Amino acid sequence: MSFFQLLMTFYLCLISVWDVRIRKIPIFLIYAGGIGVFVHFLITALFCGPSTELARFLSVALLGAVPGLIMTILSFYSSKVGIGDGIVLIIVGITESCTTIAIVMCLACILLSVLAGILMLFGKVSRNTRMPYIPFVAFSYVLLKLYEGSYFLI
Predict the structure, then answer these.
(1) Tens digits of per-residue pLDDT, 23-64?
(2) Phi and psi for 29 in degrees, rounded to 5?
């Protein structure tokens, strides 16, 4: 894992704690993520090389933001999705590719569904209970990065 991926992991874990404890993501953490992405952009732009590499990097970043943007738009139409979840996914998606963020989102949904099913089976939650999504995104992100780094023997 690169240094920036370790920072993103720490950022997601920090947001996860807030999401579990108070069920909201503080705006200062969203600003911190945005500033971190901006610094990442500046560093990449300075050391990127030819302009074609910079254009490729920007197009990958914009495509990576699309799944989070869709989730943010859904948050305006449904009370099941939080706007903070979509914004955090935009921040993560800008730093990763569209494929990576889509895999992270799908794996997070699967893990959330499995845990919700188990909790419903034992009567701890009901169908309409809101559960935090970002902890599952953080766990999925870590799993995917460990898998990409060949830390698993699968």
Answers:
(1) 888 899 999 999 988 888 888 777 766 767 777 878 888 898
(2) -75, -35
Q: Which residues contact 47 (CB under 8 A, 6 or more apart)?
A: none
The distance in angstroms from the start CA to the end CA of the chain is 18
CA-based Rg of the chain, rounded to a whole angstrom?
Answer: 16
Break the chain into its structural domains and give their ranges: 3-148
Q: CB 41: neighbour CB atoms within 10 A?
A: 17
Is residue 90 within 8 A of residue 68, CB to CB? The reply is yes
Instruction: Quick: pLDDT tens for 93-142.
Output: 988 888 889 999 999 999 999 999 999 999 888 888 888 899 999 999 99
> 83: which 2 tokens?
């706007």
Global pTM reads: 0.87
Question: Which of these, 31, 107, 99, 26, lies nearest to 67 by C-alpha position?
Answer: 99
CA distances for 136 relative to 5, 17, 46, 111, angstroms: 17, 11, 34, 7
